[in-house]
């Protein structure tokens, strides 16, 4: 919880219809089990103390008394549990019967929330027994539980517009839906979220019919996305009456459009996951259209509670190692096809607008220039232009290896572009003499002179051909500043500018897997197998690439992981370190993660000046570094506070 993760559980215990003693005993057992697993919020199903399928037994005094007795035992059992528990029961107030959720914490009943939408159609006949719950919160006494206004001044809050907030975890504000509430055109949880609720607990008794689980799952997932919230859905299961219906105990925990965990249907049990409250708050903060109103001015009451212990939450949920790339191959292929179309459509429009009939691409035999060439070919196809109008320029120099040179040539031929070779050794050596640089000193001047010479050639060729220079640099390089200012940093349109390196690989792989041309497939696979390198330093004695980018700046899969959580959610370095350590366990040790995280922040802050003057290019994913779009950062911002946060981790090393 120190990193704002809330461990939550949705629970379906074994019950017997109408046997409140048996049900209460099993609820308490489940509460204790959940607490041992460090759960801080446990949500049980609708009317769990009595059973949902009691029908006219709800009109029997003994069942209502038994339900209150059960709630009293649950309140007592919660005394030593540092956990919020939410259970359902029938509750009589002012001579009307309500279907309520009772919120219990540390020996106290924090409040009762009644169901607002009472179904009375198809197999549901709740209106026969239950009244519509009032929105307005009132204060009631319940003598059976020891809450008596006149004698002790204590009371229970009762009403639908009731939220529950943790004093020492202010990001946690709980709102409640009860079953049918979720299925409404505008569920109550919409209003709860606009009044600051970050987590919605839904106590449900949704019977099972063919295909209903898919619809239910989508409802929960989409509502969590709409509300930018956590959504805990606890369903009734086996133990309910099967006179006409069957209940499957389909429990779900969702967060902002993603299902974090769910139970197997037709088996009572518990599903547990960690809701990232920090992520939800960050996303709401970013979205200026997500309006949060003061709860009280919106007609809400807030009941506060305080956890005894705010400690690190043991993570069990899954985080993708490549957050920019879908893990499922079908989803990944669909995403790759979509991105290639976005890139090509953006370039098509720019070529059309500028009346360019040719395009100039610097082709090195590496991943980025390969993707740029593939996208350019696709854009030419969309325009109905002959691919021979694409001028693919290879510019061998001191670091060029035979492998990358040959791949560049073969790739150009198979795409149908026009290959132009312009060796730059002589021009660069002349430049060294002009500026007085010793060519035996392989420093930044030695490297960048080559990159700028290549850009000079590309720009002038574009002028000669009435064409456009297509940028090849990707988003990961822009984040790290791994580009030569006014060298490969510059172009007339950057098709890869919002594509991170980990995604570049999959885009090229997707093209390789879907092309019918065997030779093109083979050369693309060899490009994928080639170490990432700018090839600005001479090869080794065997003619192989000596300058490997990831040896110098770190693994791109780590940097892309860092970049995603920095830009998408504004996480602190220490939280990103913790997530990376958990996600890459077995791949990188904590010292390695620490080293490259520190490197990332130093470079990210120091290299903003390169991003401040980026050429145009299409945004393809949820984040981009364009100064005209997602990322507007001063070039002179200090990194000190972020480095200090990283240094707090040194005691772990």
UniProtKB/TrEMBL annotation:
E.C. no: 6.3.5.1
Enzyme class, broadest EC rank: ligase
Binding-site residues for ATP, renumbered to this chain: 362-369, 472
Keyword Nucleus on entry: no
Pfam family, one: CN_hydrolase
Binding positions (L-glutamine): 121, 206, 212
CDD domains: GAT_Gln-NAD-synth (cd07570), NAD_synthase (cd00553)
Top-level division of the source organism's lineage: Bacteria
Protein family per UniProt: Belongs to the NAD synthetase family.
PANTHER family reported for this sequence: GLUTAMINE-DEPENDENT NAD(+) SYNTHETASE, NH 3 /GLUTAMINE-DEPENDENT NAD + SYNTHETASE
Role according to the record: Catalyzes the ATP-dependent amidation of deamido-NAD to form NAD. Uses L-glutamine as a nitrogen source.
Protein name: Glutamine-dependent NAD(+) synthetase
